[in-house]
Every structure is written in structure tokens, then in C-alpha cells.
Task: structure prediction
Amino acid sequence: MSHPLDIAVLIGSLRHGSISRKLAEILKALAPPELHLSFVEIGDLPLYNQDFDNEKPPEAWTKFRERIQTSHGVLFVTPEYNRSIPAVLKNALDVGSRPFGRSVWNGKPGAIIGSSPGTMGGFGAVQHLRQCMVSLNVPVLQQPEVYISNVDKVFVDENGVNDSLRHFLTEFLLQYHKWIEKIFGVENVFSKT
Result:
């Protein structure tokens, strides 16, 4: 393959030192050469308001929509807030899905990583996000599922995770790439952008 797939990474936490951001940084470092992971910031997106669909949309919405549209796939790295996804992530989904009939999410190969300091590993957030993906027509990698429990204890230092999780995340990324190739065909993915 001549070019890596451009995977837009959306992080569901805005906190500067968030665990989700640390995980995303580790994923970026572990990504195989066939995947280029790039972060798409969502914290500056004004709250979705349908009134703007009939007017000039905020510049941040336009840039965000264009960035997702040109990506070959999307990877969500999210914590769990109250058994669901953070509001900032839901807002990004809504902004990208409108105006009606022009969703930038449509057909993008997706993958989800959930995490929590608790024992359920962000299960509630991942399941709610998967439910949204059905409505947005984002096919999501089914296996391996990624629920990182006790996430605050997996870091060996500020730059890395324990060997077991590093191996698992590397395998996850390889499977994501293989799945995109198998299901979509790389040529098809490139032609959609």
C-alpha cells in the first residue's frame, strides 16, 4: 500500500491530562505503518443547534465536518460518564450527522475503546456509542472489544502502559486494519474520501 489509512481519533475527554488522551497517544505510537492516527479535537465545537443548518454554520463545525469527511475511518477513545458517553462526544456525533442527509459519518469504518477506573471498563459508554453508530451508519469493529478496567493502574509511567495492555492494543490496531481491508477493501476506502 502506498499511503497509510487516515484514521480520525476522537477523544471523549477534554481534561488536559486525561487517561483517554494518554491511551490515544499510546495507540498512535503503537499503530502499524498502514494506519495513520490523527487526533481531531472536539472541545471547541459549539453545541449542535439545528437553527444553524439554515444559516451559516459555525466555522468550527465546517472544519470538523471536512476533517471527518476526508478520513478513511474513525477511532473513538472514551471514558464513561454516568454509564454513557461524555456530552462533548455526543455533540461531535450530532454536529457531524447534520444537516440531514449529509452525515460525514456515513459508512466510515469505526472502532471503539472504552476505559474506566472502575471494574466495568467503560462498558456502558461503549454500548451507548455502538447504539449511536447504528443510527449513523458507522460499521464498527466487533472483535476484539476493548474495555479497559482499572485504567488508572495500567500505566507504568507517563509514557506507557504495562506489557499486557501494550500487546493487546497492538493486536487491536492490527485487527482494525485487517478488518477494514477485508470488509471494505483499501481501494474502496481511499475512493470514498
Remarks:
- The first strand starts at residue 5 and ends at 11.
- The helical segments are 19-30, 59-70, 87-97, 123-136, 163-184, 186-191.
- The beta strands are 5-11, 35-39, 73-79, 110-115, 147-148, 155-157, 160-161.
